[in-house]
Amino acid sequence: MGFKSDIEIAQETKLNPIEEVAQSIGISRKDLELYGDYKAKVNYNLLEEMKNKPDGKLILVTAINPTPAGEGKTTTTVGLGDALHRLGKKTMIALREPSLGPVFGVKGGAAGGGYAQVVPMEDINLHFTGDFHAIGAANNLLAAMIDNHIWQGNTLDIDPRRITWKRCVDMNDRQLRFIVNGLGGKANGSPREDGFDITVASEIMAILCLSKNIDDLKEKLRKIVIGYSRSGQPITAGQLKAEGAMAALLKDALKPNLVQTLEHTPAFVHGGPFANIAHGCNSIMATRMALKLADYVVTEAGFGADLGAEKFLDIKCRIAGLKPSAVVIVATVRALKHHGGCAKADLNTENLAALEKGLPNLLKHIENVTKKFNLPAVVAINRFPTDTEAELALVEKKCKEYGANVALSEVWAKGGEGGKVLAEEVLRLIDANKQDFKFIYPDELGLKEKIEAIAVEVYGADGVDFTPAALKELQKITEMGFGKLPVCMAKTQYSLTDDQTKLGWPKNFRISVRNVKVSAGAGFVVALTGEIMTMPGLPKVPAAEAIDVDNTGKISGLF
Fold first, then answer.
1. Of the residues 196, 268, 312, 412, which is catalytic?
2. Which of 77, 285, 340, 430 could in theory staple to 300 by disulfide, Cβ–Cβ 3.0 to 4.6 A?
3. Lowest-confidence range among 3-12, 228-237, 371-380?
4. Helix/strand/coil (H, E, C) string of 141-170?
5. Identified catalytic residue from 384, 482, 505, 559
6. Which of 104, 132, 196, 303 is catalytic?
7. Can you tell me the distance from the alpha carbon of 136 to that of 41, in angstroms, rounded to the nearest whole number?
8. Active site residue 96
9. Nearest CA among 328, 339, 323, 331 for reference residue 369
10. CA-CA distances (angstroms) from residue 557 to 11, 13, 69, 376?
């Protein structure tokens, strides 16, 4: 039997009608808005109807710092959900929507892989139900209203040099990072420097994912700070009277999207903020709805536990009042050897020395989950055929020394059947109920101290160096009344430090914060470290070059 690509596996699978998938978890037809036969939006008013139902158990899937060798976090999330489903547990999966930037860039699609996928994978990876387009439209409506207000007389006295709101597009396009617009004479606006973010970095994306209902969405949109007046006062979207129209564009995007896995486990795929520049997890609406509909909900947070899991726990759980019952930390032997300095070409050869050198990266993430956040954790080793017994034994031994059991995951090759050992360990952890979840910092701690707490406790830094610009901005944000907000760190995903070349578990380093900005609508303060960008570029050979569609409408090359 020849090797099958992810898209071929997905296209060969017979899907159940989405009404049947919805019915399996108690969603009736009246609460569905169909997008064809295999995807639907779910009425968010259902959440209010179910408010007195008890919540199921929440399982968070995170990972080590990612490497070119791959970890398989989404694949593990989907496979674990399928495994729990096979064990007779009423289960749902809650994932983010993929961004078109990575789909056409380096990473490719993001719907899982092998026999652990959410489907229809082509739709999910491309336009899906139009959520990202709605977010982009709402973002750019606000941008248009800002420049129109200035052109029409500028009664709010907006300083064109201090507008912080950017336009956005869901594509990797470095050409748009820094632009000058409003050229061509008075009739065409006022010339000023501007730029684009990728849609998943837009504050609108974070707001959509952190909103509890439509009224909360509107209130958050109203609070967005778009820039400052000439006298230094913050200007909000509410002052521009933009929130109503923006919410109108987002009213359908706020509804969670229901799909299924290859094994027909129900899945919400909703929202998609990046974890290196935003908070990196799916919507509160989808997670809370899943917890009312299922006994077990498997969700993931982007990149390594230093980014996605920290933000899931310190931001999303704080805002939504959530509490995970167990955490899964995904790793591969190949990725750990990469952290130990092994070249990509040599990753398939046994190398216990490189593995031992790279293992501390995993051990730090175990420490963060079990000691810093006080949550029970299991390490899922996403097994590759080239992994040797000696390598697997070394990983298991070291992890147990750090207080986490190891479960081999073979969901890529075997689907839910390959995740049963992992599922049983997760159930054991939940039943043991050794949970005393705590945040890294309390609300009342100052913003500077919150940033330092994350850097020291989660990254293992010796401290934080703030530029004068960052310190000035922190003081101003605090004086504006935002000092009690949680912090969202913008940092490279490849390292525990802000230098992506430092792999493993680095010691004796400091984090440099070059600037901070308030996302008053989303309800967090962003600390920018290193050279992190909010608009990626395409690689030398973009994935887009391999993607095609034939005359029957069949898409190829997404994986």
1. 412
2. 77
3. 3-12
4. HHHHHHHHHHHCCCCCCEEEEEECCCEEEC
5. 384
6. 303
7. 19
8. yes
9. 328
10. 12, 17, 20, 39
